[in-house]
Please model this.
Amino acid sequence: MYNLVVFGAPGSGKGTQSARLIDEYGLYHISTGELLRDHIARGTELGKVADTYISKGNLIPDDLMIEILENTLNTNPDTAKGVIFDGFPRTIEQAEALNKMLAKRGSKVHAVIGLEVADAELIDRLLKRGLESGRSDDNIDTINQRLQVYNKQTAPLRDYYISEGKYHGVKGSGSIDDIFRAIKDELHGTEE
Ligand code: AMP
Model:
């Protein structure tokens, strides 16, 4: 079992690089953002609650998000082969919960890839994506809020994972292929 966290600000390329990593390593992909958007599209009760946070650029409360994540691990046997966590954890509380969930399964987070991209480029990418994505949160006001939330609640995870010796920062600008190669170099030797 190999568990990888793909970490970074909104627009840093987590989804794009996660897709490449799945092809390469055959891991199970959990994108909490996609999971929530799927609930919104299906009009479930959870989707209705999630939408009130997502459309404002805020995080879903930790207890709810942790419950959803644990449920996903419990109901998908394929997660036993290892998971790419894309967009989770986003707070220290979530990171601690993830450590506990994986420890219960006799495993751990093996590595964290941090995609590092300057704010101006993030905003540019998200506005461009907004022209096609149809996402309620890819507009300038919500983007600004998401970046503020990221800096306040999520960015401290970088130090958290540095202190655990798991953080691997990668420059997230340039070509998708070059970034992917840099990620693979960083992951080399993190399997144990
Ligand atoms: P993403 O697709 O990863 O950019 O996530 C889109 C939105 O979903 C975020 O702005 C949050 O509102 C919500 N979300 C996704 N993952 C989490 C998480 N781990 N904790 C709280 N909220 C989340």
